[in-house]
Amino acid sequence: MALELKQQIKLTQQLVMTPQLQQAIKLLQLSRMELVGLVQQELQENPVLEEGFEGDDERSPEDAERESGAAAETADEPGEAASPEPVEVAPEPEAGTEPEPTDAEKIADIDWQSYEDAQPHTGMREIPAEDDRPSIEQTLTRRETLNEHLLWQLQLSASFPMEEEVAARFVIGNLDERGYLQSSLEELARQSGMREEVVLAALAKVQDFDPAGVAARDLRECLTIQVRMLEVKDPLVERILAESAVLDALINRDFRGVARQLAVTIEEVSAAATVIGRLDPRPGRAFGGEDPVYIVPDIYVYRIGDEFHVVLNDDGLPRLKISGMYRDVLAKGSPASKDTRDYVHDKVRSAMWLIKSIHQRQRTIYKVMQSIIKHQRDFFERGINFLKPLNLRDVADDIEMHESTVSRVTTNKYVHTPQGIFELKYFFNSSINRLHGEAIASESVKERIRRLITNEDPRRPLSDQRIAEMLKVANIDIARRTVTKYRESMNLLSSTKRRQVG
To answer: Which of 46, 245, 254, 356 is the most exposed place for a label (fewest CB within 10 A)?
Structure first.
């Protein structure tokens, strides 16, 4: 069989992801704070961009594009050399006369000490103007970590010999974010080079530090240390904490089993469980975790009369414009070289595309929010119980955009509404069928489950099956396993662990 080469013409259609298109897509899914950071970075990297203010004579991106295009066309055209502009030369001083002192010399000749003494002194501290005060970011301090808090107490303590202090530092360094010791005494002795007796003595002293229960090796020891430090005088509590099996039964809310093992009444077990429940099983929790991140809404929805109005939050977002100095470089007759004009032309085009992309992003967010209001008007008027099922396709068809665009727009965006602050994705949820009538949103069902559990009798908590039956009475067709899934997603305990005795 002979091999031969053939040429064929095939017509295909494909999407070419240009850098500009990739940038526009990236801007869509950025949060407001991320967008501010990106704009600040562009202001530093692109010399053509500058921050504008209210009342500036800004030129639109289209004008900048026309200017840069015209400059690119004339950059290679031959023409007469631009005549140099006349430069004013300061006349030389006449002979025998002293030159006029400059402004810097005049300022230097001022007797500042006499000027300061001449100022009135009221004896009161002057309050700086609002603009002169440091920003809130410069006055905030970092949260103290558990390790730093314990080391500070160790430095203030005078009861540690040199060897125990060395061992104590290794003990503190091996605590996790909960405040529990993760290494055994043998490992700590090997790491510190001290005897196990020294490490054990240092551990006992560290366990007396604040917060109570720190440096414990398990939950039982942690609670025992807190009972001792809080001086809780309850023999039943001490008996429960003395045996791990009894404590495990109490954690599982098996009050009858605890009462049977200790030969006491259920009421006494309930009273002891109340005391133990006030203790902190994670003493290092107050020092762990990251600093809270406060949500700044991207959109505000106000109700004026019977209409809802959408306002985009532009606070903190710089108003970008093309620098006038670089526009002059691209103007006809500019003495700049061709390389300089090409460089400025590329930077102007990049800046223009960034401004266009930001404007397009804001318009898309506005359209999506308008569509959400149209589909979820009952929610904005009456609350979460009237939230309707909604998917991305419904909004995409309404604003004539692709679903992926709507998905990017609703990522990490928050809206301030008359009902509270919500993420845009909150309004998109699945549906739960009703026995009769239209479907209901899953978030509304979760809210009903949360209210049922909040208002239940603590002595007789509602089981998941019972909640499913009550929802069916309310015309909501839901299975028990779905109730369990929704309850766990809201971090609500099961009925067994919610039960209270006495």
So the answer is: 245
Task: Report the CATH number at residue 476.
Answer: 1.10.10.60
Listed in sequence order, the DSSP H helices in 207-323 are 219-229, 235-242, 244-251, 255-262, 266-277
Asked if the model's pLDDT at residue 493 lies above 80, the reply is: yes
Query: Within a domain: residue 53?
Result: no
Residue carrying structure tokens 């002059």: 328
Contact 241, 247 (CB under 8 A): yes
Q: Is residue 317 part of a domain?
A: no
pLDDT in tens, 402-443: 888 899 889 889 999 999 999 999 999 888 888 787 888 888
Q: pTM for the whole thing?
A: 0.64
Last residue of some domain: 230, 257, 286?
286
- 3-class secondary structure, 429: strand
Contact 298, 414 (CB under 8 A): yes
Out of 130-139, 213-222, 247-256, 459-468, least confident range:
130-139
Q: How large is the average pLDDT for residues 82-110?
A: 45
Sort 255 into a burial class: Cβ within 10 Å, 0-12 / 13-18 / 19+.
Answer: buried
In the chain, how many domains are there? 2
CB-based contacts of 332: which residues, under 8 Å, 6+ apart?
Answer: 70, 71, 74
Please check whether residue 275 is in contact with residue 237, taking contact to mean a CB–CB distance below 8 angstroms.
yes
CA distance 423 to 206: 44
Cα 358 to Cα 361: distance, rounded to the nearest angstrom: 5
Kind and range of the H or E element at 440?
Answer: strand 440-441
Query: What's the rounded Cα separation, in Å, for the pair 118 and 116?
Result: 5
Domain boundary pick from 286, 314, 331: 286
Per-residue pLDDT, 149? 93
What confidence score (pLDDT) does residue 326 get? 76
310, part of any domain: no
φ, ψ at 390 (rounded to 5°): -150, 140
Conformational region of residue 281, where left means phi above 0, alpha means psi within -120 to 50, and beta covers everything else: alpha
Rounded CA separation 497/453 (Å)? 12
| Residue 158 belongs to a domain | yes
Cβ proximity of 150 and 172 under 8 Å: yes
Q: Six-digit token pair at 265? A: 């009444």
Tokens 């845009």 label which residue? Answer: 424
pLDDT average, residue stretch 109-130: 48
Per the structure, the complete domain to which residue 266 belongs is given by: 146-286
SS3 290: coil
Beta pairing partners, 304: 307
CB-based contact 72:329 (threshold 8 Å): no
- Distance (Å, whole) CA 372 – CA 378: 11
